[in-house]
Amino acid sequence: MAEPIPEEGKAALKAARDTAKAAKEAAELLERNKLLAKRTPQLENARIVADKLEKEVRLNQKTAKRCQALSSHTLGIYEEVNKLAKGRTMMEVTPLLVEQANDIIRDAKAIVSEDVYLDRIKEFVPAGNNPVYPDVLLTIRVVRESLNRCAAALRTQKSGLLETLSRIRTVVGSLECFLSGDENGEEASISDVRTYVDGDVDDSCFSWHDQAGHSYFNFDELDSQTLEDYLSMADEDNGSEEGEEREQEAEEEEDEEE
Q1: CA–CA distance from 152 to each of 76, 127, 251 (Å)?
Q2: Is the pLDDT of residue 32 over 90?
Q3: 34-55, pLDDT tens digit by residue?
Q4: How far apart are CA 116 and CA 120, in angstroms?
């Protein structure tokens, strides 16, 4: 039969356990403070990126509206010139039509960028003989096509911006949840993060799962790379397939307009 532990031994054992517990708690506190020191600047940086993306989305929407309005106006002018051109092949257009055509060219170039075909189009010089109807008709047609391409590009850009915005908002919400001080907030479960996100969360950010099927934000994935690289993963996951679908939709819409 084992001899009982003397009182002095019990006291020493308890002291050793208390010391180990205190050391463990100190280590956990140190690690938590390190995480807090990391998460705070991460949140600040993520908020800056989110604000920038929101501005880009608004600019995209504003440009798309301008493009749509000009496209509608150009279509009306094109159809009218097409009617007038019949039987007047080599007749000069009126000064008013020259002015309208130049306005369309100027407005399109203010909206559309990096379109080689539109760049080749020059405004008609309102001096001497005015251009003939076929020349004006062809010019307006080229402008119409450039606006159609611009509209398709803006739709593609908007889709990518919204995907990235959803991802960065999820990052912001997860970091806010982590730093909230709420019970289990540092785990950043998808249900908790949703309360911090305005709109849908990006499910792909929650790649940790417990046995009960709950999903949690993967902070290790965020910490292992720059924020720019982390956000680019959204484009890699969805870019090629959705890009092809959007291009097909844009072509179908152009055919319907024609």
Answers
A1: 20, 36, 8
A2: no
A3: 777 788 999 999 999 999 999 9
A4: 6
**Domain extents in the chain:** 44-257
Q: At what angle do helices 7-85 and 95-111 cross, to 10 degrees?
A: 170
Side-chain half-sphere exposure of 15, counting CA atoms within 13 A: 6
pLDDT at residue number 2: 56
User: What are the pLDDT digits (tens) for 168-197?
Assistant: 999 999 999 999 878 888 889 999 999 999
Q: What's 182's DSSP letter? A: -
**Per residue in 171-185, is it b (16+ CB within 10 Å) or e — as a string?**
bbbbbbbbbeeeeeb
Q: Which residues 6+ apart lie within 8 Å of 179 measured at CB?
A: 36, 39, 40, 43, 185
Cα 47 from chain centre: 14
Q: Could you tell me which residues come within 8 angstroms of residue 6 by beta carbon, excluding any fewer than 6 positions away?
A: none
DSSP state of 215: E
CA dihedral 181, 187, 192, 197 (to 10 degrees): 90
- Which tokens is 224 given? 């292992």
The type of residue at 206 is F
Type of residue numbered 40: T
Q: How many CA atoms lie within 13 A of 191 on its CB side?
A: 5
Q: pLDDT tens digit string along 52-92? A: 999 999 999 999 999 999 999 999 999 999 998 887 778 99
pLDDT > 90 in the chain, percent = 61
Using CA atoms, how far residue 49 sits from 70, 214, 217, 231, in Å, is: 32, 28, 19, 10
What amino acid is encoded at 123 in this protein?
Answer: E
Element containing residue 208 per DSSP (H, E): strand 208-209
